[in-house]
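In response to the reviewer comment on reproducibility (Comment 2.3), we provide here a single inverse folding case reported in full, input and output, so that an independent group could reproduce the run without further information from us. The structure tokens appear first.
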């Protein structure tokens, strides 16, 4: 039986991502018990009503690229940069080091 992914479950995980770290849509899907639901996680991130309280901008693609953001990619990269995440050639620098896992 697949677990249902809800906005409140997602928000609880978003608040756990430490400063200067990111996680992936796939990591969140796995933490929620449905490893195949990365796209559903992305859709829910897009519905996040408060990106300041629930930092969905810290969720990126598994290849280290930013992915989408309801407020635009430039805003996502700006917020990530403010949080200490650096980019080079469109990808996060030292991605494996700054990637947060919930396990």
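Designed residues, in position order:
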């Amino acid at each position: 039986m697949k677990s249902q992914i809800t906005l409140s479950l997602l928000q609880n995980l978003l608040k756990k991502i430490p400063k200067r770290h990111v996680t992936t849509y796939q990591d969140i899907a796995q933490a929620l018990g449905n490893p195949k639901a990365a796209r559903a996680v992305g859709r829910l991130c897009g519905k996040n009503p408060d990106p300041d309280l629930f930092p969905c901008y810290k969720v990126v693609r598994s290849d280290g690229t930013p992915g989408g953001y309801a407020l635009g990619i430039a805003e996502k990269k700006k917020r990530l940069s403010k949080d200490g995440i650096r980019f080079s050639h469109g990808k996060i620098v030292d991605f494996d080091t700054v990637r947060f896992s919930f396990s």
